[in-house]
Write a structure and sequence with these properties.
single chain; mainly beta; 5-stranded mixed sheet; 8 strands; 13% helix; 38% strand
């Protein structure tokens, strides 16, 4: 994650007044930044709302392994949740190269269900890189009112 991600998240959560608390350059305003929701922050753990409709998040990874590396996705999720990953294979040609993938999640019969846990792993001939996936019912998709922060 970079400064733009954190600044965009601050704008989504707190607006320009919140941004001014962290960034002391008056030329940088929320109007100049993408608003980044909490679920879209590029954290290894993927937290999404548990609902019957699809919900997608993007993640970007960087190859810190051997230059020519191929990773294939492996999912370990309960049957009540459908997870799709695109692309399902990441092919790196050099160290430090970045790739972005999309994770789409939806639930079946999720009413009254508690949170659901599973994982997404990228598997190569030498390495396994695992990210937990947590689907949470009633996860807010908008920031809390500013008075409650």
């Amino acid at each position: 994650m970079g400064v733009t991600d954190y600044a965009g998240y601050t704008c989504w959560l707190l607006g320009d007044k919140g941004l001014a608390t962290f960034v002391h350059d008056k030329r940088l305003t929320c109007a100049k930044l993408p608003r980044v929701k909490d679920v879209q922050l590029n954290y290894p753990t993927i937290t999404v709302p548990l609902k019957s409709t699809t919900f997608s998040v993007n993640r970007t990874v960087m190859n810190v392994g051997p230059p020519a590396s191929t990773y294939t996705v492996k999912l370990d999720m309960p049957k009540s949740v459908t997870v799709r990953v695109a692309p399902n294979k990441l092919v790196f040609s050099k160290a430090g190269e970045k790739k972005t993938f999309t994770v789409t999640v939806s639930g079946k019969g999720v009413h009254g269900q508690g949170h659901v846990e599973g994982s997404l792993s990228w598997v190569s001939a030498k390495h396994v890189v695992r990210s937990p996936i947590i689907a949470v019912p009633n996860l807010p998709e908008s920031p809390p009112p500013l008075g409650n922060v």
